[in-house]
Amino acid sequence: MDFHHLSLPGIGTKYELETEEGDIISVVYMESGKVQIYTRGGACNEYCSAELNAMEARRLGNVLTGAIIEAEQEGVEIAFSALADLRISVHTYIIGKNLSGRSIGEMDIRSKTGVTVLAVSREGENTVNPRPSFVFGAGDAVVVIGEADQIKRFEKEILG
Questions:
Q1: pLDDT of amino acid 134
Q2: Which of 16, 125, 144, 148 has a Cα-to-Cα distance from 34 of 20 to 30 A?
Q3: In this structure, which long-range contacts are made by residues 72-76, counting pairs with CB atoms below 8 Å and at least 24 apart in sequence?
Q4: pLDDT, tens digit (0-9, with 9 covering 90-100), for 48-105
Q5: If you ran DSSP here, which 8-state letter would residue 72 be given?
Q6: What mean pLDDT do residues 114-134 have?
Q7: CB burial of residue 131 (10 Å; 0-12, 13-18, 19+)
Q8: Positive/negative CA dihedral, 30, 27, 139, 92
Q9: With pLDDT > 70 as the criterion, what percentage of the chain qualifies?
């Protein structure tokens, strides 16, 4: 296995991995924030490519490292050994048009569901621990935390 990287002035940084089988996987982190992936099978001289935005690249990275436990739900449940009866769930969701323009406080998310909004990602900008006055936009990625029943209540009462 051979792994190396190369700075591409004005473009970004290229990382390339050659597997033991002779396959080549190249990843280019563009200065624009996008990520390009190129693959070539050992017996083939043609490259195939895909371009990902930052969120897609992180999701793929999580899949490759096994960090996504419930891939279809983008959620993780945490159990603490010292607190046997405490199980906390962390989930991500994409905000739809129906919630765009509404604030966390206006929707009374915590009081209605018990869920806490941990962070919101909008166009590459992250807001950790957003205030109740934070206004959602369509396409925002939101990270929430709560117990399983609270998460279900959030999905039903807030996300609809």
A1: 97
A2: 144
A3: 75/151
A4: 888 877 767 776 776 676 554 443 346 677 766 666 677 788 888 989 899 999 999 9
A5: T
A6: 94
A7: exposed
A8: negative
A9: 84
Q: Are 146 and 97 in contact (CB under 8 A)?
A: no
pTM above 0.70, yes or no: no
Place of tokens 């895909």: 50
Confidence of residue 3 (pLDDT cuts 50, 70, 90): confident
Token representation of residue 37? 């992936």
60 HSE (CA, 13 A, CB side): 12
Cβ partners under 8 Å of residue 16, min gap 6: 2, 3, 4, 5, 6, 24, 25, 26, 27
Structural domain spans, the chain: 2-65, 75-159
Distance CA 83, CA 26 (A): 44
Determine the 3-state secondary structure of 150 from DSSP.
Answer: helix
Closest residue by Cα to residue 36 from 65, 59, 18, 14: 14
Alpha carbon of residue 104 to chain centroid: 20
- Taking every pair of Cα atoms in the chain, the longest distance, rounded to a whole number of angstroms, is 59
CATH of 75-159, one of 1.10.238.10, 3.30.70.1450, 2.40.50.140, 3.40.50.300: 3.30.70.1450
Confidence of residue 10 (pLDDT cuts 50, 70, 90): very high
